[in-house]
Each structure stands twice: as C-alpha cells, then as structure tokens.
Amino acid sequence: MGKGYGKDGMEKGKKGKMMQMMQMMMAAKGEKGVGKGAGMGKDGFGAGADAWQQGPQWDYKPGTYYEEPGGKVGVEGLKDAITRAVQPFLPVETQWPADDMINRVCFSIFKISAKWYKEETRHKETGTSIQAQALLEEFTHRILEGLQKTCYNKTWFVDIYLSEAIALAAINTFKGGALFNRTVAPIIVTHVDEAIFRWREEERHQRVMWDAVTMCGIKSDYQKKANKHLLSSFEAAHISAKYGTSPAITPELGMVQDFVQAWLSEFTGRAWDVLNNGIAGTQVEIQIQCVTALFQYLCDPNHSCLPHDLTSQLEQPPPPAWDFVAQATILLFSTQ
Predict the structure, then answer these.
(1) Fewer CB within 10 A of the terminal residue: the chain, N end or C end?
(2) Measured in Å, how far apart are the chain's first and last C-alpha atoms?
(3) DSSP string of 81-150?
(4) What is the DSSP string of 220-272?
(5) Burial class (CB in 10 A: 0-12, 13-18, 19+), 233
C-alpha cells in the first residue's frame, strides 16, 4: 500500500512556493488576530463584513471569499494556494466553474479557521511542542471535516493538495499565540501534511471496511453491526497486539502478523452475534470461510487497512489472499 491520498507527487514540487508564503505570513504577524473580514466581527477579525459592505473597495456578497494583500482581509496567499491546488482537477469537475470551485474551498477554510480563532484559546497558552502539534492536527481535521461537507461526492477531494492552504490558515490563526512561539513555519507545513495523511487514511479505512463487510457473505441486516465491531476491534488491536511473538521471515512482517492476529481475536470476540446469526449457516467451517474472506480483503495491498506505521517498514506488503490470514483464522477458531 502506498501512502494513500495525502502525499501525492504534487506536494513536493510546491514546497519552494510554500516556503515563500510561510515567510510572508510570518513577516506579517505584527497585527494581532486572524485576517480581518468574512463577517467575523470585531477583535481578532477587525472590521469584518461591515467593512466590505460599507467600504467602496468591496462589492460584498455572502458566501464569497475576499482576500487583501497584507492579510488585512482573509488569509494572505490562500486563494493563490487553492488556485494552484485545483488546477489538475478542473478537467474532471463538471458542476462547478473554476472560480466557483476556488471560492468554495477558500471560503470553507477561512470560515472554519475564523470560527476557531473566536472560540478557541488554547493556542494563546504556553505549552510544549507536542501540545502544539496535537492542536495543529485537531485544527487540520476540523478544516477537513468542513471541506468534506463542502466537497461532498467530489472525487477529487481525496487527492487535492491542501497542505499549503491549511498551513497558511493555521499560521494566520495561531500567530501571536504563546503555544507556537518556538514552532517554525516549515514544521507547521510538515505537521499539517502528516495530519492530512492520517485523516485521509482513516476515511479510506472506513470505506474499505464497509466494502469488506458487504462482500464477505454477511447478511444485510447484520452488516452495520459487523462494521461497527470491525472498527472498534481495529482500534483495540493497536494496543492489545502481542508484538514480537509471531514467527515470520522478518521482524517487521512479524509485527504485522501480530497486529492481524489481535484484530482477528478482537473482532471474533465482539462479533459473536454476527457470526452465529448474520451469515448463511452456523457451521464453524462457514464462519471460518467468512472471517478469512473478510480479513484477506482488509489485508489486500490494493486497499490495505493495515496500519501504515507497520506496513511502511516492510520491503514488500503482504500478498493478495494472504495465506497467513487463513491459517490464523483456523487456529483462532480451534482454540475457542
């Protein structure tokens, strides 16, 4: 499995431009608060929508993103970053014109970051670099959740490069806060990049798990319950796995096998009702066949749900129809 949707080839080619934008934003941190505008009112957001409506320079329209050089309105550099980010996807976007596409994405990012600035105060408090990174990840996920609603059913959303735009919004939101006093702009870009990757991996895992549940022979009435157990057991297996106990060709592959065994054990323990009533037949052989098909699909390198922290250490991913899954499933049922 590759690194998923968050780190495509476009990202590396744009880092030089990104660094220039970071420097611009850091140089402009003399005025307190997030960029003024978008109807965000007073204090950190200055004149806000009133300035646009009353000032002759703005033909203000609700839902329209405005940006002024110097960061007095909007997030400086955001529109440019999004304009470049959407370029590869303009040929596949048939519903929104280019300007509308750019405006919707920019407005969503700015609206969420502005709301965050008004309601959150954690970035103003002193803390560690780890706390700053955790807050930045939460901020990134909040923006992605909002963008997901804005870009509902847009196939390009899983691939569009957003690290630069969200990093600019983060710097604009957190500048002046004590928590980020010792966090340099390039590190913010790196942390945002990693947060986007993790968020997209979680979203992808959920889709793959649902696909696996619907194709392995579980009755439709029990698929929702099976999916819930699959997700909860996946999370539990990260800690419950007895790492270093499974014999394998390499220690790294052994760690992956340890995780799969824990995931299998957690799932079968939680999903006993699904296995006894949600498949066509109660024979152990049929249950083994169902669970084997389910987890071989989840481990398939074409859409693997195995943790990236483990699979990234492998020289080669587990093969399709991984025989280890079948053996581990048989062993598990034989001991129950």
Answers:
(1) C
(2) 32
(3) HHHHHHGGGGGG--SS-HHHHHHHHHHHHHHHHHHHHHH--GGGS---HHHHHHHHHHHHHHHHHHHHHH
(4) HHHHHHHHHHHHHHHHHHHHHS-TT-S--SSHHHHHHHHHHHHHHHHHHHH-H
(5) buried
Q: Tens of pLDDT along 3-44?
A: 433 444 444 444 454 444 444 444 434 344 444 444 344 333
Pair of tokens at residue 66: 């405005």
- Token code pair at residue 314: 């492998």
What tens digit of pLDDT does each residue of 244-281 get?
999 999 999 999 999 999 999 999 999 999 999 999 87
Looking up tokens 């990260």 gives 238
Locate the domains of the chain by residue range.
9-202, 216-334
Tell me the C-alpha distance between 7 and 21, whole Å. 20
Cα-based torsion angle of the residue sequence 130, 131, 136, 138 in order, rounded to the nearest 10 degrees? 120
The answer to whether the CB of 168 falls within 8 A of the CB of 81 is: yes
Backbone angles phi, psi at 97, to 5 degrees: -65, 160
Model pTM?
0.77
Residue 141 near residue 187, CB atoms below 8 Å: no
Tell the burial category of 20 from Cβ atoms under 10 Å away from its Cβ (0-12, 13-18, 19+).
exposed
Token output for 122: 């954690």
